[in-house]
Amino acid sequence: MDPAIDVSDLRKTYRTPFARKKVEALRGVTFTVERGTIFGFVGPNGAGKTTTIRTLMGLIRPSGGTAKILGHAIPSRAARFKVGFLPESPYFYDYLTVNELMDLTGRLFGVPAATRKQRADKLIERVGLGRARSQSLKKFSKGMLQRAGLAQALMNDPEVVVLDEPMSGLDPIGRKEVRDLILELREQGKTVFFSSHILTDIEAIADRVAIIARGALTAQGTPAELIQRSALGTDITVRIAADVSIEELVAGASNVRRTGDQLSLTLPADADVDAWLATSRARGAKVISVAPRHETLEELFLRRIASADASSEATEGRV
Amino acid sequence: MLGRIWAIALNTFREAARIKVLYGVLVLVFGANFLALVLGQMSYHEDVRVAKDIGLAGMSLFGSLTAILLGLFLLYNEVQKRTVHAIVSKPIERWEFVVGKWLGMALVLSVLVGLFALAMVLMLVVQGAGMSDDLVKATLLAWVEVLTVAAIAIFFSSFSTPFLAGIFSLAMWVIGRVTPEIEAATRFASTWIRIVAKVALEIVPEIHLFSPSGRGDVSIHGNFVSWGYVAMASLHGLGWIIGLLALACLLFQRRDFV
């Protein structure tokens, strides 16, 4: 079976209008999204997330490489039939009500009138816009527009859902609801590809993650894979008498904190934790907790972005 | 395919119906027709003639200007406001979107031309005259003119800004309206001017065909064109509409929506 999304060496180069200077928005992006999974796409502003998504949705023509959705090479109308899309900061016809927006969307997908009405009602309720169904979108807040965008993205009962910054503009409750909705979509067997700046959201729900910086992927894998590879050390907390010298114990450690008879510190990743624990016990310490300290997705993200920036600057310097 | 085009057309109709300027144009046209009534009273037995002239001129002039205005903004706004992102990411071909936009505009413009015609007929009825075959033909020709001008505006707005598209559309409409006069004026000009004029006129629709009254011995007040002429002129307009929309679709197809 074809993967839900298969992107290979995707490139997009723009030329500035007068100077004709080349701007590489995408520089050989390659990734695969398996069916029935949630794929998180992370990157800073201007990294190429939205360009990748717009290319997948046929809004932008790639300069090179290939991309397939459900086995159909883009831009493919057949694929778009099975894809639901929420654009970044969605702009809809503000004179429509959410009911009318759903009806228009359903018509474009060729959904029969009866199903259209039924599905629209269900989705509007699902995204929490039941009370605002007859209000024009002009009166909607950013969060409400985002919800309306989510509802229209599901109007065709898609196999693949592509969401560009779905949590943007939402309050913590709204974000939780969107996370739950994404998880629910996966339970229904749908594939969700979404971009976000909110790394905790991605870490919480994504099966796989890709980090993009300056138009190129810098890391991809499951959150566990990405984070495991980057174990930072071991966090240890022990209870030790205040008059005992800890000089030997804290040598080489970081984040050292001694509060009363409690000592907390982080040993480096290559430290011998067993030996350290034996030494501390020999000094009468009682172990409270020992936990391997993994890099968070946020830390990984910041590190990858910094290294992409550094290598890009070095390349520009050589040129 | 038809369902998708119709969905875009209906939405465009809804969008255009919200443009307040259109209601201003309607008031203006009704006002012009009322003015025709007043001017007719001041003339010597020419009241019906004045009402017809002003009614038909208003239909052609305001109809065409409205077509340019709608054509410029309705397509451009879609791209500028990014509403197009949520549409062309659906299983709709871009050409279906462009044709749907034109069709929606055509619906609005048809309603407008119908209302202009109604205003003219009301004034004629007040003056004891009524609708004639010739007036029906002239109204049909004005309608085709307006639809052709809408296609011109859509074509230009598919690749340029409203300002430039407005200038180009207006120029094309004006030149198309005075093609015979330009030909006559350049008949005795130098060879290269004649060549330039000929080439320029070839790429402009002959919009003057839609307002034949006053050319030669053709007149809406007596000796108007035949139904055969109306059919041929309409075919000319249809040909240009299809050609311009095809080009607009081609250009729109190649655009990146960033």
Describe what you observe in this structure.
The complex is a heterodimer of chains A (319) and B (258). Chain A folds into two domains: 223 residues, 3-Layer(aba) Sandwich (Rossmann fold); 63 residues, 2-Layer Sandwich (Alpha-Beta Plaits), CATH 3.30.70. Helices cover 36% and strands 29% of the residues of chain A. Chain A has a six-stranded mixed sheet, sandwiched between helices. With 258 residues, chain B is mainly α. Chain B has ten helices and no strands. The chains are: A alpha/beta (319), B mainly alpha (258).
Task: Describe the structure in brief.
The complex is a heterodimer of chains A (about 325) and B (about 260). By secondary structure, chain A is α/β, with parallel strands linked by helices.
Q: What's the mean pLDDT score of chain B? A: 87
How widely separated are the two ends of chain A?
A: 44 Å
The CATH level-2 architecture of the largest domain in chain A is identified as 3-Layer(aba) Sandwich
Uncertain residue segments of chain A: none
Domain count of chain A = 2
DSSP helix count of chain B? Answer: 10
Strand content of chain B: under 5%
Indicate the topology.
The complex is a heterodimer of chains A (319) and B (258).
Chain A: E1 5-15, E2 22-33, E3 38-42, H1 49-56, E4 64-69, E5 72-73, H2 77-81, E6 83-86, H3 98-108, H4 113-126, H5 142-153, E7 160-164, H6 172-187, E8 191-196, H7 199-205, E9 208-213, E10 216-221, H8 223-228, E11 233-239, H9 247-250, E12 254-259, E13 262-268, H10 273-282, E14 286-293, H11 297-318
Parallel strand pairs in A: 3-8, 3-9, 6-7, 7-8
Antiparallel strand pairs in A: 1-2, 1-4, 4-5, 9-10, 11-13, 11-14, 12-13
Chain B: H1 2-16, H2 20-42, H3 47-80, H4 83-88, H5 94-126, H6 133-157, H7 162-177, H8 179-186, H9 191-202, H10 227-253
Helix pairs in contact in B: 1-5, 2-3, 2-5, 3-5, 3-6, 3-7, 5-6, 5-10, 6-7, 6-10, 8-9
